[in-house]
Amino acid sequence: MGQKKLEVKCLCKNFGDSTVLQKIDFYVDAGEFVAVMGQSGCGKSTLLYCVSGMDRPTAGEIYFDGREMLSLSDKEMEKLRLQHMGFIFQKANFLKNLSIADNIVFPAFQLGGRDRLAIRREAEQMMKRLGIISVADHDIRKVSGGQLQRAAICRAMINHPDILFGDEPTGALNSSATQEVMDIIGKINRDGTTVLFVTHDAKVAARADRIIYLEDGRVKDELRLGKYKDPERLNREQKMQKWLGDMKF
Amino acid sequence: MNLKMLKQDFQKNPWKNLILFLFICLSAMIAVTVTLTLAQLFTSISSMYETANPPHFLQMHEGDVSQDDLDDFNSSYSGIKHWQTIPMINVYGEELRISNETGKQFTLSDCRLDISLVRQNDEYDVLLDENRDRLEMQEGRIGVPVILLDQFDIEIGDTVTLNSKGMVKEFMVSDYVYDGQMNSTLCSSTRFLISDADFSAMSGKVGETEYLIEAWFADSGQAADYQTAYEQSDKNLPKNGQAITYTMIFLLSALTDLLMAVVFLLAGILLMIIALVCLRYAVLAELEEDMREIGTMKAMGIPEKGIRNLYLGKIRVLTAAGCGIGFLLGFFMTALITGHISRTFGNQSFGSMSICTAALTAAAVYGIILIFSKKILRHLKKAGVIDLMVTEKGFGRGTAAHDGLRRSKKLPVSLLIGLYEVRHGYGIVFGLLLIVSFLIVIPIRTVQTMENREFVTYMGSAECDLLVEAGQGENLEARRALAEKVLLEEAEQGAIQNVDTLRRVRLQAVRSDGEVIGIHIDTGRSAGAGLKYLDGKNPASDTEIALSYLMADELGKSVGDAVDILVSGEKRRFIVCGIYQDVTSGGRTAKTCSGFPGEQAEKYAFALTLSQENADNLAFRLRKKLGSGYSIENMEEFLGQTLGGVTAQVRQAERAVLWIGICLTVLITALFLRLRIARHAAALSAKKAMGIPFAEIWKQELYPVLLAGGFGSVCGIVLAELSGDRLISALFQMLGMGLKRIVFVRVSAVQFIMIPAILLVTLTVVVSGVCMKIRKMNVSDYVNE
Known about the structure:
Largest sheet of chain B: 11 strands, mixed
Number of helices of chain B: 22
Strand order of the largest sheet of chain A: 6-7-8-3-9-10
Structural class of chain A: alpha/beta
Number of helices of chain A: 8
Strand order of the largest sheet of chain B: 4-3-7-8-6-9-5-2-10-1-11
Helix content of chain A: 25-40%
Distance between the termini of chain A: 29 Å
Largest sheet of chain A: 6 strands, mixed
Structural class of chain B: alpha+beta
Radius of gyration of chain A: 18 Å
Largest interface: A-B, 50 and 42 residues
Distance between the termini of chain B: 28 Å
Radius of gyration of chain B: 33 Å
Shape of chain A: globular
Strand content of chain A: 25-35%
CATH superfamily of the domain at 4-91 and 162-246 in chain A: P-loop containing nucleotide triphosphate hydrolases
Number of domains of chain B: 4
Oligomer: heterodimer
Number of strands of chain A: 10
Order of helices and strands of chain A: EEEHEEHEHHHEHEHEEH
Number of strands of chain B: 21
């Protein structure tokens, strides 16, 4: 077992009278790839937004690299997210008036502290690796959904985050684009970045080392699959299906 | 259904709808206010004229009047309805002391207008009370002209003591007089009303007698022909004084309020444009927001007209409500700004005609907004289902993205983002600030110009430190001699560096068509020097003459033409050397170096250039040495007294425009930003999710607003500076005031910094306020929408 990158203790979240998360306890080890699954409305996304500091929980404790997150001020939380966390959403949510490449370098420029030319070169390298260099100077309205999501991954990784959060990152993609994006995320994880994302797609979740299943705002169960290896894909998926069947997913 | 949709829409976008409603409401209110103000002005004047019956032709005259010659001439003139000769007792301001029991005491020496005491007339040229009823004065009572109340604190019950030629007479102020013909500070005289008995008792014993020769026609338009015939007549008709026709009387009466109404009209038109621009932005933003729903409706086969009507219905309800409330508010607004009309022409309630016209105006605003909305909604036609639902291209308003951020090396990221963003949809902020700055600058610059001492050059006088005038009245030559003696003494003592003396005579000039018209000519060694000429230059020899712009127009002469002046029945030829502007004496004057020694002088003016002496000290000394019968003023006083009423109104408009401008800036920018945040909520949430500090997000929203607003404001100021004086000149020219080309005075550029600075601070406050919404934004609500 490695060092804990993220640890959550007794996390609760209410929206008015409605309780969304109830006494959630879980952790993510450094370098681990964890997927969160569950039925619609079970609190997956809320959990992700709470642990990534975008939303404040009603009660509980969250530790990032051993540091209590909830005691941080808004400014400190922003700095933590910009420096150490990357995000991918279902939609890219890019700035409309900037090109693909400009959207990618934007968080790094905003963080500062690095040579801008170096950031630009690094962004171009990433775009090359992800096969989107040809659309670098394109308008975001003129590229495909798969290309946009790959660009979103570049943007999320430009500040070399310790952890990458994903909220249904493949939710709006077709199956081939989903494969491509998951290959990239898998590679990022193998290169050392911790990954935590929520999904309702069993095939996508099968890429994770561990799967946490949420039901009615509580952790119902978890499944440990180990590191993903392509030849084992079918076995993992079958194991997943069986487990999800037990969960009545 | 529309009401239900509107209710839901109001719940969803309360701010957007409220601001749109406010704009429609304000546009309707200003349109109704302008209509009612103009209706009020013309109805008040007409209503006053109905009872007051001001003359269609008026000739002032000092000296004897041959009533038989006058009666002969008028009897033989067809179309004349009535004529009368009114005697007036002219007194000097110094001779009238106002006092009361509380110890208040002052004279009217500071009054620039010639003061006359008159008795009431029977039917024509009647002086009225505030309810437009004919005033009757009892013995020992006096009616004070209402236009003096702006300058002097005179109350009912005060005592007016007249001390002239050794006779002392006390009156009690019993009424304020509303005068149909002398009701503006732009006129040269004002009339106090006393009883017939007092008038008879004082006539010939105090002051000097002047006559008003008045005529009425079946059609007031005949006055101009009558004036020509009067001036050409070989009978001994009284002509020693200023002549004026009905048109000018009306114009002088209405000018101050007309200017106010024109300023409001311009503001109303611009506000309407802003409201339409806002509406366009709001509707297009709404269409973009509802892109998927519109796509779905189109996919279902709902015709474009049906979809359009859904949006139009909401606009109809909003516009009808806005126009209705604007219509009602217009009445309150009119009541607030027509105080001057009531003060000048008496109280006037809104007539049914005014109400109908105002209702029609509000209906016109409703119609314009609806037609414009239909035009905007044509965008619905432009986008197909695929554009709306698959490619999300929308209604084709997107512009190409920028690709420069990654190449920048040093500039702050938020500034760069601001620079890119400013080119996308910030035209509304640019246009708004351009219009607002333009509107704010115009009245400010007009007041600055009108209050600047250089403005005297538009009034037929050259700039000087002190102006001493010996006007019409008895012993003019003796007063002239005394003034010359005193001024020479002061010059010898070193107080005065230079004295330019102008002698005004009234002669006749021959028009291009051979007709003869009266002309006031200022003669003197330096006559016409120091004026700003529209064309040509000042007279340099005895054969040259400079004409005022209206005089040149009337004579049909331009620079280089010859003009004949009748001097003692003989024609004397002059060459027109220059054309200048003059608002005094009805704008019909001339300047020449040639003297006319045989002609009786109307007035002497001494323009003094001082050496080291303080103008106020010298004025005080001169008043003491010269006594009554002179007007002694520095340029600022001269301007203040002549144009004070007009500048006060423009200043009031200036303040109103500044506040309206700031309110517009706040409202429109807030609307724009709220809509922008709604449209870009997902991208803004993504920025928050990435950890971009709020201060940076705020800057990224602020910079484009400041850039667009600042640039707009500078453009508005430059535009006002380049075209504002032409606009004002056109206005004055349209009013026939003898001004054709006014040039704004030069002021330090620092004075211009204040306007953009105030507006940019306002924008910063608005952006900061609206950005609080971003701070409160819940990321999860938007990122996956």
